[in-house]
Design goal:
Organism: Roseateles saccharophilus (Pseudomonas saccharophila)
Keywords: Membrane, Transmembrane, Transmembrane helix
Structural class: mainly alpha
Oligomer: single chain
Helix content: over 70%
Protein name: ABC transmembrane type-1 domain-containing protein
Length: 126
């Protein structure tokens, strides 16, 4: 097995792990809605968990970007350097406001955002 195959397997495994972690964050958010008696604290916790999931999805997206590069290299048989996840990311890493914007963009993705406003409304209504 060549280095690109090994890299793909490792990246794909971690990509799926981030998906499971994001689901775990959603489950904790639901538990917070039910178990935290103070509405202000529950809303703050939900906002924090929402942002945490956005950070996880941003990290997952970086892995996904690299997976696409590796897959293109595997498909074409071309010259793609293996094991360059962090070097490639560092070369294009956004700074300051760009990084915050990346996190917020992921927070607003429907698959991330959907449960949080609903849970927040539930906290306020109940």
């Amino acid at each position: 097995m060549n280095a690109l195959h090994q890299e793909w397997l490792a990246l794909q495994s971690q990509h799926e792990r981030y998906e499971a972690l994001a689901l775990g964050v959603k489950l904790v958010a639901f538990a917070a809605t039910v178990l935290v008696p103070d509405n202000t604290l529950a809303l703050a916790l939900l906002a924090l968990l929402w942002l945490q999931e956005a950070v996880l999805k941003t990290f997952q997206g970086r892995l996904g970007d690299r997976l696409l590069v590796v897959e293109a290299g595997l498909k074409s048989g071309g010259e793609v350097a293996a094991m360059q996840l962090h070097s490639d990311w560092l070369a294009s890493r956004p700074r300051g406001a760009g990084l915050v914007a990346q996190y917020l963009k992921n927070a607003l993705r429907p698959t991330v955002a959907l449960p949080y406003p609903l849970l927040m409304i539930l906290v306020v209504v109940i």
